[in-house]
Model the fold of this input.
Amino acid sequence: MSEVKLVAKPGEVQFPKGLEGVIARETTKSYVDGQRGRLYYHGIPIEELAENSTYEETFFLLLYDRLPTEGELEYFKSRMVQYRELPSEVYDYICKASSRYNDTPMSVLRTAVSMLASFDDSAEEDSLPAHEREAIKITSRMATITAAIGRARKGLAPIHPRPDLSHAANFLYMLFGEEPDPYYARVMDVILILHADHGCNASTFATLVVKSTLSDMYSSVVAGIAALKGPLHGGANQRALRMLKEIGEPENAEAWVLKALEKKRRIMGFGHRVYKAYDPRARILHDYAVEVTKRAGTEKYLKMAEIIERVMIERLGKKGIFPNVDFYSGVVMSSMGIDDELFTPIFATSRVAGWTAHALEQRVDNRIYRPRFVYVGPEIDHWVPLEERVKPEKEPTPFTPLEKLV
Done:
């Protein structure tokens, strides 16, 4: 392999920005076939898991690379139930930050997970059993945190978890205060399964970078949450739903999207960095959206979405732009009564299974991540006394000069 030039003029060295296509490591967890529109968790098609599995079983699959036996699943579920409850101090923080401080839900989630480390005696223990235990603890408690955030933002007291409900049903119970309809519990289970892992996305890679330093599991997950908080990664389903609300009625949809395309406005919920075919998760959620919107009386949002999908595929399908998971997930969750500000925390509540599974995989065969920069600044420069310095006519960076900030 030839040596890469690391000192160069701007644009002289070609490299994939954003590390696009660069292989970070081997994994057994999930595979995205973007060309054919397929997603597999350890070889199992996502369609089979969505139809037959549960979030608990899917989490087991991601952690241990196999489906559990009946006894193993019951034991694993009991471990998740064991860890559902939060320390009172974490509940207090969630209530204050969500109401008095008015922090965003993802900011509260990030800090609450970080707080959990203070109440875990094994948080700094560097062993695989401790990391496995923390993976289950964090994944279980993220649902409790997210539900508490949703209630606190409405000025409502948190509801403590119930040990007799599944992970998905318990989340809805903690969020709404009543035992959910079994159908809605199943829909939430499917939503969590579909978002549990998705290859080397930005938040999973952020998790791995932190874990590769041999930092603790809590810090690794907090890194994943921080990456997902960014609007280029999380929040697209929230913006897709708000787009539908802006359109208003189905009869406005086609003209709206054509005008938006003419103005080169981005249509939320379409296109994907990996998928160049229809996202299989979007197909699954569309099917659930039919029944959910019928039950909720929100069919107009599904009709608008279907019109937009038709126009977008007609215009841009040849370019590989199709609906992604975000396009229908917002319609489904909104119709279930979930506020759109909780969409990204729910995403994180699901994806933490993948984050922790990949973090454990990283720990087994670890090497700290250390990519390189191409330096394009001056090769040689010299320090100049303060009184001899002259302000350049053109700022060398795009940042705002200091005097304009004060």
